[in-house]
Amino acid sequence: MEEQIPDKNLFMMCRKLDNDATRELPNSFHVRYCRKNELDLWKAMHFDTPELATKYYDFMTAYFNDVYLPKGDLFFQRCMVVCDQADKPIGTCFLWKSYNSIWTLHWFKVLKDCEGEGIGRALLSIVMKSLPEDEYPVFLHTQPESYRAIKLYSDFGFCLLSDPLIGNRQNDLDECLPVLQRYMPRSDFEKLKISRAPQFFLDAVCSSNMNEF
Predict the structure, then answer these.
(1) What is the model's pLDDT at position 1?
(2) What are the distances in angstroms from CA 199 to CA 53, 95, 102?
(3) Average pLDDT rounded to a whole number, residues 164-179
(4) What's this model's pTM, rounded to 2 decimal places?
(5) Which long-range contacts (CB under 8 A, 24 or more apart) does 100-103 make?
(6) Which of 117, 173, 134 is nearest to 150 (CA)?
(7) Domains and CATH numbers, the chain
(8) Average pLDDT, integer, range 201-210
(9) Angle between helices 147-156 and 119-129 (to 10 degrees)
């Protein structure tokens, strides 16, 4: 079903974290930073099959080299992974200061076999709580196929951005809303909020040709 959902751009913003949405990590899991010898594992984690991970390996490598590598070891000081009892990473998420000026949420993912245990909500809670209130807002880029994550983002206080252009990318909100309405439970869809982006965000994104989030 999800394969039929169009690959379109959506952008979201959280001005203030809704702490009522946060949860603690289950006792059998723990969070740490990604290690250098786990980089290929991290790249593959975002795809549900080995075939897809292989297909997009070059893309992930190019993205890492373009966005993170110029900052030295900062990626490994920011990229969080949630691990099982064997210390194997089964999820990841982190905040990154894109364009040296705006906080953005990067690469939120929990392995499919580990979904439904509250791990994603707990991991997102840890990441979002790590940022002081006066450092908000936080921005993210997503797609309509990630409607379950969009519901979670909405719980945390994220709203959809309505601006037609975000940097060099088209914002496909008008096309995506009917898709979200179709796939999301009605009560979740009706809770989605929409807002214009602040000017400082648009200025920062427009100042670079690179998509840092």
Answers:
(1) 40
(2) 36, 21, 12
(3) 95
(4) 0.94
(5) 101/200, 101/204, 102/137, 102/139, 102/200, 102/201, 102/204, 102/205, 103/131, 103/135, 103/136, 103/137, 103/138, 103/139
(6) 173
(7) 7-206 (3.40.630.30)
(8) 88
(9) 40
